[in-house]
Write a structure and sequence with these properties.
It is built from eight helices and 20 strands. Strands 1, 2, 5, 6, 15, 16, 17, 18, 19 and 20 form a ten-stranded mixed beta sheet that branches. Strands 8-9-11-12-14-13 form a six-stranded mixed beta sheet, with helices on one face. It has a two-stranded parallel ribbon with strand order 3-4. A hairpin with an 8-residue loop joins strand 17 and strand 18. By secondary structure, the chain is α/β, with parallel strands linked by helices. The chain starts with a strand and ends with a strand. The protein is globular.
């Protein structure tokens, strides 16, 4: 079974302006064949998807064309986390439109709902005989109005310790998304590391981070995998560091698992990732090895396009 995960998917603002001319499928054109070939595809939706709502009084608010829900399904997304700091950008109507439109298109949504029970509810998929479970948590201190209100699952230890072991009981592989860390940082902070380690110890198999907008280390911890941040997948930021990223690939084999990071960039085609080649690919590889060194992880170039590491998993 091949699992693919991507970082932040933001389909508003500058991305939407490009799509007005190039078409709504443009952001996925360069990676469609890779993504659509996966048995399971997951990531973080960094925008509301709606044509309703009033923008919050904050610096950055994102709202994307409702048609993107169908496009995300067509690309192959199976489950997306909506537990992040942009879920409230256009209020309650846009919040629930996002969940409704994605679910209607066949993409499961975790980490957000009408109360704490739906926020913490795991979603499941049966793929090639494996039951895959998903959870999502928001560690940015935003978009939680209390247990009886609509919002995003907060990344508090109380909720994590309750939700993760319970979700693991009914699945073979548990994937937990976190929206956390410091923006524009290549390294996780102490809170990220502590939460990631405890989440693995509680039963999660794969931890996937988003929010920093840059690549962060990969760590193999007690039979689990931690991707502290996969960076931007689709965004409109301008810094070079925000336009190089990776797609995480986890191949589940009978006795082991292989982890490959597919280097991508949005420098050649703004807001439309494609495979990183040549010098850019080398920069991504060097960066990953530099930031992951202290976590005991080393990547090597494989077939000119991939970085690979094998390990004995607990799956």
């Amino acid at each position: 079974m091949r699992i693919l995960a991507v970082g932040d998917v933001m389909l508003a603002r500058g991305v939407a302006s490009i799509c007005d001319t190039a078409g709504d499928f443009y952001p996925f054109a360069g990676t469609f064949d890779i993504l659509n070939d996966a048995d399971l595809l997951t990531g973080n939706i960094e925008t509301t998807i709606s044509n309703r709502g009033i923008p919050m009084e904050k610096k950055y608010v994102f709202r994307a064309n409702p048609e993107f829900a169908n496009i995300l399904s067509r690309v192959g997304f199976d489950c997306i986390t909506f537990a992040n700091n942009h879920a409230f950008d256009y209020g309650k109507d846009a919040f629930f439109d996002t969940i409704r439109l994605l679910e209607k298109s066949g993409v499961k949504v975790v980490g957000a709902g009408e109360n704490i029970y739906s926020m913490l509810e795991p979603k499941q998929l049966n793929i090639k005989g494996y039951i895959i479970g998903f959870l999502g948590f928001n560690a940015t201190g935003t978009n939680f109005l209390g247990e009886r209100n609509w919002g995003c699952a907060p990344a508090s230890k109380e909720y994590i310790r309750k939700a993760v072991p319970s979700a693991k009981q009914s699945c073979d592989i548990l994937i937990v998304h976190f929206h956390w860390g410091e923006e524009d940082s290549f390294l996780p902070d102490e809170e990220q590391i502590e939460l990631a380690h405890e989440t693995i110890e509680l039963g999660a198999d794969i931890v996937i981070g988003s929010h920093p907008h840059r690549i962060q280390p990969v760590e193999f911890y007690k039979g689990g995998i931690i991707f502290y941040s996969l960076g931007n997948f689709i965004f409109d930021q301008n810094d070079f560091e925000n336009n190089i990223s990776v797609i995480a690939e986890i191949d589940i084999l009978p006795d082991t698992a292989e982890v490959r990071l597919i280097p991508i960039e949005t420098i050649s085609h703004k807001a439309s990732p494609s495979l990183a080649k040549g010098e850019i690919r080398n920069v991504v590889l060097d960066l990953l090895n530099d930031i992951s060194y202290d976590f005991g992880t080393e990547f090597i170039e494989y077939n000119g396009e991939f970085m690979v590491r094998e390990f004995s998993s607990s799956f």
